[in-house]
Design a protein that fits this description.
The protein has about 110 residues and is an alpha/beta fold. The protein has a single domain, classed as Transcription Regulator spoIIAA (2-Layer Sandwich), CATH 3.30.750.24. The protein is built from three helices and five strands, in the order ββαβαβαβ. Strands 1-2-3-4-5 form a five-stranded mixed sheet, with helices on both faces. The longest helix has 18 residues. The chain starts with 5 loop residues before the first strand and ends in an 8-residue tail after the last strand.
Length: about 110
Amino acid sequence: MDTGSLRVDITEHEERPVVVISGELDGYSGGLASAYLLRQVEQQKSAHWVIDLSEVAFVDSSGLQLLLATRKAVTGQGSLTLARPSDAVGKVLQLTGLDQFFDVDDRAPGSTS
């Protein structure tokens, strides 16, 4: 999915969906990405999802809402890990306390070190 300011790609790694989000997670793009991502979660029904946020340059409350809605959708069937949050995302997660709410991993999906 590509809105111009946001791109969402879903791949698989070790039979887990890995969502790579790049660009800006704002009011416009966040709503579109949320609908797309929630549809994918419902269709794939995987036990564990990873969202790689290393390429997100900006996030606002709409972007946080996307992450929370995805976590809620996944929780019924498995778990969600936020991988490699960019500095912008990490700062917002920390300021809002959501870094304690999500499983956050600073390593790349599939990395063992």
